[in-house]
Design a protein that fits this description.
Elements (H helix, E strand, L loop, with lengths): L8 E2 L3 E9 L9 H17 L4 E2 L7 E9 L3 E9 L9 E5 L8 H13 L3 H5 L3 E12 L6 E5 L5 E2 L13 E4 L6 E7 H16 L6 H10 L7 E8 L5 E2 L13 E5 L9 H14 L1 H8 L5 H10 L10 H11 L10 H11 L3 H12 L6 H12 L4
Antiparallel strand pairs: 1-7, 2-6, 2-7, 3-4, 4-5, 5-6, 7-12, 7-13, 8-14, 9-10, 10-11, 11-12
């Protein structure tokens, strides 16, 4: 009895990776060297109580690096003290994977960071700057070995470390250049799950079981998991982007087009279909269609591609949903996503020192308060010592 095929389903976007900066210019006052020394002692105290772990990173651009272990089998990497403050926009860098958060992880993370950086920490989050963010969409019941992937507006089509199964099926596609601000990738998630199972064996050890039996037990856990394809848009170089600007960026999920082949129905001769698939996986869909355009089977191949286009891929709202997923993590306050709030803060930070002295004289002389003096007063009130 032949089973009825299951229609692939796109799940809601998630935040699969995040790196952001916090600047001490937003809310902290006092000598930066004294501030750094105070923070360094607090970090050592948290490490001494096994709350944090030291991190030893080669070529780090920060003076101190440590990790905060979370319940969701993940660790937040925190780096403090920029070695080149003139070029580096933030004295604090945080790298974390929100998709692995468990309930309570965000509150615990903020609690530890609050103890280290003091009452001003919550204010710093309102002016966070994005360095990197990875959005991911899982397509459940999708088999990449019977799927063609096209990506528009990419100057380069690349498949880094092309993973091939015994049957010659591609397991990973990467689109774009390694030097681009954004990278996009499509891969078979089951490969990642098998890799994680192997890591789990290496981490926990074999115990009393032999290697073969332990591996079989781990892989049996994946037997009932439906095949899943993951689509990722990685903002690798966001150049210290304020959070409120993220939603206005281009929806790169819309660049993807999928064709799901299913079982061969004889529309094309077997050797023509195999040749077309081979060209698609070697050069990309656009290049394959262009190569075969003026051949005897060109029109039939183009019709074959269009007839297999997937109607279940609806990316129009995915970027907005991904940005909403970032807000829902609870890492940042709502003010961080408000453009008006961010512009007011930036204006305050750009006021020259001479304006502060003039505003002070005006207030002492009893003159009416100007807009600039009000802003300066608000800035002083919002500054908190740690």
């Amino acid at each position: 009895m032949r089973l009825r095929p299951v229609t692939p389903l796109s799940k809601r976007p998630i935040v699969d990776g995040l790196a952001f900066l916090l600047s001490w210019d937003c809310g902290l006052v006092g000598d930066p060297r004294t501030t750094f020394e105070r923070v360094r002692l607090r970090i050592q105290n948290e490490i001494g109580h096994s709350v944090c772990e030291p991190a030893f990173l080669t070529g780090s651009r920060y003076r101190i690096s440590f990790r905060i272990p979370l319940a969701g089998k993940t660790k937040a990497l925190v780096q403090v003290g920029a070695r080149d403050p003139q070029r580096q926009k933030g004295e604090i860098r945080v790298e974390v994977n929100p998709s692995k958060f468990e309930p309570g992880d965000v509150d615990y993370f903020h609690e530890v960071m609050g103890r280290i950086f003091g009452p001003a920490y919550r204010g710093l989050l309102r002016h966070a700057l994005l360095q990197r963010i990875d959005f991911a969409v899982d397509i459940v019941h999708a088999d990449l070995s019977r799927m063609l992937v096209s990506y528009s507006n990419a100057h380069r089509f690349t498949v880094f470390g092309k993973l091939m199964s015994i049957g010659g099926h591609v397991e990973t596609y990467n689109f774009g250049s390694v030097t681009s601000d954004y990278m996009t990738t499509v891969y078979d998630k089951r490969v990642e799950q098998v890799h994680q199972a192997a890591i789990e064996i290496a981490r926990k050890g074999l115990g009393k079981e032999p290697l073969k039996a332990n591996m079989i037990k781990q892989l049996k856990k994946l037997r009932d998991v439906p095949p899943t394809v993951r689509v990722e848009v990685r903002g690798a170089q966001l150049r210290n982007m304020p959070l409120h600007q993220l939603e206005s960026q281009e929806n790169r999920f819309k660049r993807f087009k999928f064709a799901y082949l299913g079982d061969s129905d004889g529309t094309l001769p077997a050797w023509i279909e195999a040749s077309f698939l081979s060209l698609c996986r070697d050069k990309g869909v656009k290049a394959a269609l262009a190569t075969l355009k003026n051949t005897e089977h060109g029109r039939a191949i183009n019709a074959f591609w269009k007839s297999r286009r997937c109607s279940w891929w609806q990316p129009e709202s995915m970027w907005a949903e991904a940005c909403a997923a970032l807000r829902e993590t609870g890492l940042f306050p709502t003010q961080a996503f408000a453009p008006d709030y961010a512009s007011d803060v930036e204006e305050n930070r750009q006021l020259p020192d001479i304006a502060i002295r003039i505003a002070g004289r005006t207030e002492r002389a009893g003159a009416p308060a100007t807009l600039k003096s009000k802003l300066l007063g608000a800035t002083r009130q919002s500054s908190i010592r740690i």
